[in-house]
Amino acid sequence: MRRRAFLGTSMLVFALSTMSAFAQQKEVTVWSWFIQSTMQKSIDAFEKAHPGVKVTYTYYNYSPEYITALKAAAASNSLPDVIGLQPGSLTQQYRDSLVPIDELAAKTWGKDWKDKVFVVNRKQMQMGNPAGDNNNYIVPQESQVLCIWYNRKIFEKLQISVPKTYADLKAASKALTDGGYIPMFQGAADGWQNENVFLMLANQFSPGIVDKAQAGQVPWAAPELVSAMKAWKGLFDDGIFQQGALGAHAYPTGAQLFAQGRVGMMALGSWWMQESKFPPPLSEYVQNMDGFDFFYLPPVKDGGAASPPIGGIDIGYGLTKNGAKNPEAWTFLSELTNGVGLQEALNDLNDLPAFEGHEPKGDITDHVKQMSARFMADLPKAENQRFASPAVAEALDNALAGVADGSVQPEAALASVQAATDKALGK
User: Fold this and answer.
1) Hey, which of 115, 125, 313, 380 would disulfide with 140, CB 3.0 to 4.6 Å?
2) Contact status, residue 178 vs residue 264, Cβ threshold 8 Å
């Protein structure tokens, strides 16, 4: 009887201690479009380093699911603790639901913490803030450089050389189409991918001109921007993009077709290196990334220059006002962007670091190392990818769609962007 009583007491003590530990465990809620398998590795590393904290992650496809979910949650004051953000327009759209992270960052990393952020990222962190607001509402996790990826094996099979001129690009697209492949997949139903390609074009004609236009320093009707808009239309008319591009999405449709070896080219960015880390089954083209390489969009104007590197912050994270009530939320955010969580993302080649002093570790092929080194060399030279005002970004998205489907002429489309810019600037 005594033994039974002893065992019963032990079990009761164990149960109570377990319940106590469970009660003491804190939870952090996170939403993002950040790839789920990589995020789980970051979460596992964080929870190992912080055993009293549980992280609950909700993944969304960026467009339109994530954008829709954020709008609904913000309207009902039910945002999670931490949200994934792009700098500029997306951050500004939710700035009223966020708290500044400056003091927290200084306590965690020191007063000079921003000096360790790559320059192009640093410039984007406060994009769109109202005059006099010098707070930072986003911590960058990763950087990116935009480019045109291509399937090396298909190019070799069809004897296509990397395009150096627009004529080369048209010839490559025709050869791919004739060979039964999609030439350059464009998810033209997604504003973000259209913006990226337009930025490639505009910066060919005048590097930095879009930044000047959105700041009101040059008109959107500038000849260089009109030429860029006409060149954008040409990518559809000249068969560079696939038929039906206006109704297509880059993710998941385009990315899946590209990974399956059915697409010759696609405008993406340095994040595509992550495909080499995905588990089987995968196409032979994706394994180890040996089947892929990248180039910059060739000049559409004879004698012109190819698109310069364009990029900056790939993804960052903001601390919501709900998250500010949870001390563990900042702990996770800081580790995700500049700690153990970031290292896991880099090891998965999810993208380039936003803070200096980090690099991927583990099993990485020489080919991927070389591509990563090329991207890192180009990052300091990158032109800004982001828009400060949500309204200007939306106006440009609508303008690009209208020009692409032929319903609006380039000059009229750019006039609508000018109107949105003037309104955003208070003119």
Assistant:
1) 313
2) no
